[in-house]
Amino acid sequence: MPQELLLQVTPEIAANQEQLKNHISKQIQVSANAIQQVVVLKRSVDARQKAIKINLKVAVYLKGDFFEATKFQLPDYPNVATAQEVVVVGAGPAGLFAALQLIELGLKPIVLERGKEVRGRRRDLKAINVDHIVHEDSNYCFGEGGAGTYSDGKLYTRSKKRGDVTRILELLVAYGATPDILVEAHPHIGTNKLPQIIQDIRQKILACGGQVLFETRVTDILIKNNEVQGVVTHQGDTILANKMILATGHSARDIYQLLDTKKIFIEAKPFALGVRAEHSQALIDQIQYSCDYRGELLPPAPYSIVKQVGGRGMYSFCMCPGGVIAPCATSPGEVVTNGWSPSKRDQPTANSGIVIELRLEDFKPFAKFGALAGMEFQKSIEQKAWQLAGESQRVPAQRMIDFTQGKVSSSIPKTSYVPGTTSVEMGQVFPGFLTQILREGFSEFGKSMKGYLTNEAILHAPESRTSSPVRIPRDPISYEHLQIKGLYPCGEGAGYAGGIISAAIDGEKCALMVGECLRQKNMQ
Fold this sequence. Notes:
single chain, 524 residues, alpha+beta, Defensin A-like, FAD/NAD(P)-binding domain, five-stranded parallel β-sheet, 28% helix, globular
């Protein structure tokens, strides 16, 4: 049996297998030659002290111990071409992993995706970046793989209670992700590598007899006696099914409006909103690692920061080391920012959403919209930003210290945001209470991270799609909608997830509940 050890070593030792073996041999008092294999199980950077250390959890195999390299294999999926059909609306992580789980259960998924397949999305992303043209069904949020495909592919989740995180990571490795995602404290695939993995998942769904229909937007849900009967697409086609997993993501506003119009119960949900701040990666490295130069052995430094300001939480969100800021509007006449990193995180800039928690009472000016009040609040800020920046995909921008002082920046340097920026006093973008909290909060951030508050940092507005402004309520046991039988609200768009991993887990859970419902029905 291998011995498991917790180690704290220098970056040099962590990066060199022979040095690591020698270090371990001294720890367990055996010859280095007696060590057959060292397998790193977990790895994280500890930068709390000036001398940076790498925390490792390792399994040590001595000579004579049985060792076999782990092989990550896909489940033995059956062919479901003639099986009972289940409609899955949305091909983001929730929808795709729901489809895979349905196949494992012997059910046939019909996945409907309003956007294009993963490769076809690229032309539309170029259009928004270069020509400022927003394709409402194909953009950074909509299309195969969902928002995560071309906006980073972060794989960590703060909540381990949601389900089996390891299962999702191992499935991703089996579909082509690097095994490092099972080891790193903050696993990340990268926007450049995720598309192939997403494409391979789709190919597996098709090979097993499932269906994936692109450029197929759902415009109506057929309901009889409070039970799902099927859906109607924008082409006018009807697809019949009495089980539907609704996994449309947090930006599918037309779906929320459809549910509201049909008087299907939904409710407003608090979310967070703010700006996206960009620093040079070298500065963040200096702050986090307390050194002038990071070197080759340490990863580009991330940061995570939370403050209570004016009785509200203000915190970093979706921090992208060595990354860029992207335009993530889903309709003309609005501006939205997000961030992403390539797999190597080798861009010269670092960016992070800096957001403030909102409350339901903040949406009172939009009370006439009922459950859609938060969505309309969100939309109003995105539209105002679009107007202030010049009615294009340019974003309002301001130097950080200038923002805290309410002063328009005389110049804005080129940032990683390709469509460009317009110098704006951002107090015009946000309601007064949000502006005040952001100003005070950045000053507080600067006290905790010396050097963070600088006029070399550029704020881009708004960061507004942190999570869904609507919750589609469901039974906590059956996962069915509280009102409509056969409707399974799922993932971020329904208000039950917050990232790739948690969305994938929720997709699997919904599929399992569909399977259980059908099993019980067949037993009757």
